[in-house]
Design a protein that fits this description.
Elements lengths: L1 H13 L4 E8 L5 E7 L6 E10 L5 E6 H4 L3 E4 L4 E6 L3 E9 L6 H10 E8 L2 E7 L3 H4 L1 E4 L2 E6 L5
Parallel strand pairs: 1-11
Antiparallel strand pairs: 1-7, 2-6, 2-8, 3-4, 3-7, 5-6, 8-9, 10-11
């Protein structure tokens, strides 16, 4: 009887947890270059990002490591600075966190502490550069398990 109750409690508690993945989506027609710097703790964001493809609903279609796609990816592991090229229709998976919500102040603090700087360039021009103070403003919920930045063409 104790085992059954324990199993029910375990299933109840584990079913409430979910992972939230963080992405940077290239929704433009041309390649972009993404450079980001992980914070000193580096628990949420990874230094080995993955490049994925996505559809019009931002559903992830295929996951590959950057070198398998033939896209340039550089990592400065000492400073935790990562640079990748994303072609149109590709996204960069930069990490995940458990039960993350953009509406939770503690979660957004984790986001700020783990992503010091983010820079996106296209055709040699800077689309945006943001530091830890404002990085949360660039992320938006895609679905319950996905939070991302949709990089759009610069307005002129």
């Amino acid at each position: 009887m104790k085992k059954i109750i324990g199993l029910i409690l375990l299933l109840t508690l584990t079913s409430c947890s979910y992972e939230t993945d963080f992405y940077i989506f290239n929704t433009t027609e041309n390649p972009i270059f993404v450079t980001y710097e992980c914070g000193p703790n580096g628990d949420v964001f990874v230094t080995n990002p993955r490049i994925v493809e996505f559809d019009l609903d931002f559903e992830i279609c295929e996951i590959k490591k950057a070198y398998e796609i033939g896209t340039e990816s550089k990592t400065d592991s000492e400073n935790k600075i990562i640079t990748c090229e994303l072609k149109s229709g590709q996204a960069l998976w930069i990490g995940n966190d458990l039960n993350f919500s953009l509406n939770n102040p503690n979660d957004t603090l984790i986001l700020k502490e783990n992503l010091n700087e983010l820079k996106v360039e296209q055709n040699g021009e800077k689309l945006f550069r943001v530091d830890d103070r404002y990085v949360v403003d660039f992320f938006e919920p895609i679905d319950r398990h996905t939070v991302g930045i949709k990089v759009k063409k610069a307005s002129r």
